[in-house]
């Protein structure tokens, strides 16, 4: 039986406090990091169809078509990647092939499903109208926080595909609630009504991206319905630790590591093909690791976007190294 390592000998790196975490992993380092990290910590990325992750996640060259078909199984073999985060929308059912693919993943692989804007956007915009039947920018969304629509068009589809392995549904509310005329009080009331209208217990988490909605009433609703708050690095939101002081403790934590607000499309274009760190953010990394240290025994998902720094798996590697160095 292999003994659990008690020390990780990180390779020599430049003296810069950010760049020192960017060296390619030494042989066996990823496995050693995983062994040293808390078993409750789950790292993942938003999607996996990125050919630019060659020699970071994939061995050799992969096309988008190949990754869409077979990449998730290879993703699951990476020692630090044990969660996948992807959109769950009403536009198409999960195919039987996809269901078989999900079922074949290792039992330690977790899923977080991002609920489609047809449930979370109060008003259609050019950014979220894509894929919404009949939706037009500027129109009010008739299915905003519609519990029956969510259960029928999204939850039941993915419940059938995943079975007992169904993960958490994450509700990311775009930063347009205030522009849509929804006050913080009204939002909390509608959120409570939505969760109370669900006909069965569903693991859910809520992400808000406008600080005025982080209220005592919002926190009360989360505690009452058993939903988790999503700690987000979205620009303009309070620090992660300040968010933690304002929301109730939940059975599981979710941390969303995203890029600066309003710059997603430009950063995607600038950072593609997502094969390297392009904009290292030491402040963000320290904030994430500080929050992780504050609850090492609590099951925690850290969901990283390519737009955060340029390459989600390499951001995860840097976060893992930083956390292990503090343990």
Explain what the structure shows.
This protein is an alpha/beta fold. Helix content is 36%, strand content 13%. β1 (41-46), α2 and β2 form a beta-alpha-beta unit.
Summarize the structure.
By secondary structure, the chain is of the alpha/beta class. It has twelve helices and eight strands.
Keywords, please?
8 strands; disordered N terminus; alpha/beta; single chain; 327 residues; globular
β content, as a range? 5-15%
Instruction: Calculate the mean pLDDT score and round it.
Output: 88
Distance between the termini: 24 Å
Radius of gyration: 20 Å
**Helix proportion range:** 25-40%
By DSSP (H or I, 4+ residues per run), the number of helices equals 12
Shape descriptor: globular
* Strand line-up of the largest beta sheet: 1-2-3-4-5-6-7-8
Largest sheet, described in full? Answer: 8 strands, parallel, barrel
Which class of secondary structure composition applies to the elements?
A: alpha/beta
Q: How many extended strands?
A: 8
Q: Quaternary state, please? A: single chain
In N-to-C order, the SSE pattern is: HEHEHEHHEHEHEHEHHEHH
Uncertain runs with pLDDT below 50, 5 residues or more? 1-16
